[in-house]
What does this fold into?
Amino acid sequence: MDTPGSHSTQAADSIFIRSIYDEVLANAEAHENLRVLCKSIGHRLSGSPQLDAAIEWGHTLLAAYGADSVYRQSVMVPHWIRGNREIGRVYLDGSDEPLSITALGGSVGTEGELRAPLVEVRYLEDLDSIGRNAIEDRIVLFNRPMDPLLINTGAAYGGAFDQRSDGASRAAMYGAKGVLVRSLTHALDTFPHTGAMRYRDSIPRIPAAGISTVHASMLHNALKEHPELEVGMELSCEAFPDREQANVIAEIRGSEFPDEYIVIGGHLDSWDIGEGAHDDGAGIVQSIEVLRTLLALGYRPRHTIRIVLFVNEENGNNGGETYAAIAKEKGEVHYAAIESDAGGFSPRGFSMEADDVVYEAFRSWLPYLQPYGVHVARRGWSGVDIRPLKDDYVSLFGLMPDNQRYFDYHHSARDVWENVNKRELELGAASIAALVYLLDQQKP
Ligand SMILES: [Zn+2]
It folds into this structure.
């Protein structure tokens, strides 16, 4: 078979892209690799021994697939441990009922049970209008659902995210004792979702937990009849000194432009409930699958292809920041970067942060991808890990899978391997490989 060279033609490109999908759909190892990552290693929070094991696993796997080089890049990461006590209760009419809660990442723990009357708000600004008297010495429930009218669930997530990230400090400014945050999901179930929060400097640090949507709605209804009800929360989480971990980087050297890089990546760390299967084990095994596939097809890229397994996306982004800082320090030319961090669902298109020339070039490539269900070109957000690379020269792309079910799993105990569909995962990997091929052959 002719390996396409720099003078690619439309027909040759279509044929090669077909061979990428054929190779992935017939021989992919992504789903099995994800099973090992999720079942043998498990969840992989920054600082954890599981993330150490995942770094080792990724390094070994990339080397076994025949990358030209594989190495690690040291990254300092936070080390926060959930502990094993997460108990929520509502006290009503002399009895109590359990509430499904889980500490938000970075929260301080409680000393024993923190029990206090509850006050509910929807927006952070509601705190300003109800004032200190209504908040002081209480637990605040932030209970604004993700907007169901937004078709893009990522946008709905972004619109509700402030409650989780900033709710604790905002409530603490008015003397609150703790906060419960409605889980960021459209699903109505009893699984609480975690995620990063941060404390503002010089404001008291109060405990913060996610609460399941079913229990958040139940409290909303109960407060109407029993405005005096109390809730209890007990969290055993704790922060420790930062630890050294590492991004894992593998390369296939470019034949014509070895000093120009196309990066493909996802994040190896995950939250510590569930298995980080969709978020972002999927992006990790897809990135590795791109390397396996290109090598299996005997493809020699013109530009250097770099697979990056980033660490610490979830609670700091120190992996992405470190990678970009070192790239800039070395004066490395990053031509393009592609991230998969939106779940292992059927691919629909790519989002991009790129100039008009690249955007139009990508649109002109859609006929190559449409036979595989990839038809969307959207300007906008690419990915957390690759974002620090952003400058005038690099084009950033994010794989856009169907996003309707992603937040059912995201950051919850439901984000497990069994909930990732093998075929959808593989189609995503093949679509990234196809984009890598087009970028490599037809540099806009
Ligand atoms: Zn993620």
